[in-house]
Amino acid sequence: MSGDFPVSAFPVWAPNATTVSLVAEGSERPLVAQPGGWWALPDGESPASDQEAVDYGYLVDGAGPYPDPRSLRQPDGVHALSRTWSPDDFAWSDSAWPGRSLTGAVIYELHIGTFTPEGTLDAAIERLPHLSALGVEAVELLPVNAFNGTHGWGYDGVLWYAVHEPYGGPDAYQRFVDACHSRGLAVIQDVVYNHLGPSGNYLPVYGPYLSEAAAGPWGDAVNLDGAQSDEVRRYILDNALFWLRDMHVDGLRLDAVHALHDSRALPLLEELSAEVSQLADETGRPATLIAESDLNDPKLIRPRAEHGFGLDAQWDDDVHHALHVNLTGETTGYYADFEGLDSLAKVFEHGWFHDGTWSSFRERHHGRPLDAGTAFTRLVAFSQDHDQIGNRATGDRLTATLDPGGLAVAAANTLLGPFTPMLFMGEEWGATTPWQFFTSHPEPELGEATARGRIAEFARMGWDPELVPDPQDPATFERSRLDWRELEHPEHAKLLALYRDLIALRSTVDAAEPATDVVADAASGLFTFRRGGLLVVAGFGSGHRELRVTESEFCVAFGSIGFEGGTLMLNGTGVAVLR
C-alpha cells in the first residue's frame, strides 16, 4: 500500500489512530486518512523548504513527534526526527557488476564498528584490498540498521530502513557497496526481522507491529499472523527489497528465523523468497537469501514447488560444534553431543549432526535429514563467527586456545570442506583481540538489565559469571576492535599466507563437489577426506601419525608436519593438503 503514495505525501501506516499530523519545517500539517489504515498529506501539499533534506516526524493522536517507521535516515539518533533521503541520488558505478549466486562462495563476516579503528563504512572501504588479496568472494555485514547508542552488535535495531549514523549513514553505505562491487566482491547484509531493540522502538505507537501472544527470548515477537498483520509483513518484505534493489546488496542473511512466529498457510519466508526471485528476474542479478536457524529443518532450503520456503542456504552450526569440540576438548552445554571425530565425519557426510538424533542439551530429539540430493553448498559453515565467539563469556577466539597447527586444521576443514565457507574478521591472521558483547545503552537501567541477562545466559553453559565483562563498559568495545598491526608479526603473516593458499586451492575444485573417502580415526586423531583432486589430512590433538605419500603430492602443509622417505609425519595438530 505504501507504494501507492508519492514520497512527497509523507505516507504513514497508523490503522488505529484517530488523528495523525506531519511535523516538518517548524509547522504541523494534518494528514488525511486513506484506505487500509494509511495517512498522507492531501494531494498537492508538501512541506515548503529551501533545503534538499527535510527533518520530519509524526504526531499520533497528539503524542510525539515520532520518527517515521520507514525512515531512511536518522542523523540525530533513533529518538529524534527522521530526515528525507533518496537512494536514487547516488551515482552508482557498478552497472557492469553481474552479481553472483553466493552458495559456494567464500564469505567474510565483519562488524563495521570493530573492523577498523575508525569503525566506519568509509574506513572499511580502505581495507577492501586486504579482502581481495585474501581471495574472499563476498562480504557479510553484521546489522547496520539504526539503534540507540553509539556502538553495539546491531541486533537491537529499531529502524530497519536506516543505516546507523555513526557508521556513516546511508550515503556511506552506498559508497561501500559500490566499492565492493568494483573489486568483484558481493555484499550480504545481515537483517533482523524477528524482534526489535528495547530503546527507540516506536512502532507500537503507530500500529500492531508486535504480538504479545508470541513473545520470544527478546521480548514481544513481530506480528506476522495476527490481526492487521498484512501491512506488518509488507513492512518486512519492502525492507528486504530496499536493500537488494535500492542499495544494490547481493544477498541477505536472515537472523534467527526460528524465532519468527508465523502460522499462516503462506509463510513469510516463502513469500519473501518468491518476491526476491521476482526482483532477481527484473534486475538480471542473482539475489541470495541465507537463513540462520537452529532447527536443522530442510524445509527452509527446499524449493517452493516442493512445498519448501525456497531459501538459498542456511547456517550450519553443527559443523562449527564438531570442529570446536574436537579441537578444543570443550564439551559443556550444547557441545556435549559433539565429542569425538565421528561427529565431524557425520557432518561432512550428511550435512548435519542432529538429523533426528537425541540432543542432550535440548533433552529431546532434534532435526531431520537433509533432502536427498541437497548440495552442501546450501549450508554455510565456519569455525568461528560473531555468535560463537561473542557469546562466550570472555569473547575469546580460537587463538586463545589453539596453537598455530590447530588454527590451520580449523581453516582447512572450513575452506576445503563441502560447505559454503565463512570466515570471521581477523580469523585469517589469527587475531588475538577478543570479540566481546558490547552495548552503549544511554539508559542506565537498560544497561544494567542487559548485563544481568548476559550473566544468567552464561550460567546454563557452565561459565564463571565473574569472567563476563560489563557490556556497557567502553573498554569492552575497545578490546573488540581488530588490531591490524598484528599483520606485521611473522606468525600472523604466516597464517594469513596459509588462508590465501587454502582459498586458492578451493577455487580449483567445483564448489558443489562433495566430500568423499571421509575417515575419522579416533585412535590416532587423524581426519581425512577428499574433494575433487585434493586430499586433506588433519591431525587433531597430540600424538604421532604417519601416512605414505610422495613429496610431489604436497600442496600445503602447516603445523607439526614433516616428510621423510615417502612418509608424511604429523606430531600434534597440523594439516597437509595433497593432490
From TrEMBL:
EC number(s) on file: 3.2.1.141
An example Gene Ontology biological process: trehalose biosynthetic process
Pfam families registered for this protein in UniProt: Alpha-amylase
UniProt main location, coarse: cytoplasm
UniProt site (Transition state stabilizer): D387
SMART domains xref list: Aamy
Residues at the catalytic site: D255 (nucleophile), E292 (proton donor)
GO CC terms: cytoplasm
GO MF term list: 4-alpha-D-(1->4)-alpha-D-glucanotrehalose trehalohydrolase activity
Assigned keywords, A-Z: Carbohydrate metabolism, Cytoplasm, Glycosidase, Hydrolase
Reaction(s) the record says it catalyses: hydrolysis of (1->4)-alpha-D-glucosidic linkage in 4-alpha-D-[(1->4)-alpha-D-glucanosyl]n trehalose to yield trehalose and (1->4)-alpha-D-glucan
Occurrences of domain Glycosyl hydrolase family 13 catalytic (ranges): 84-454
Location of the protein in the cell: Cytoplasm
CDD domains: AmyAc_GTHase, E_set_MTHase_like_N
Chain positions recorded as substrate binding sites: 253-258, 317-321, 386-391
Pathway: Glycan biosynthesis; trehalose biosynthesis
Transcription recorded as keyword: no
Family, as annotated: Belongs to the glycosyl hydrolase 13 family.
UniProt-recorded name of the protein: Malto-oligosyltrehalose trehalohydrolase
Native source species: Leifsonia poae
Taxon lineage: Bacteria, Bacillati, Actinomycetota, Actinomycetes, Micrococcales
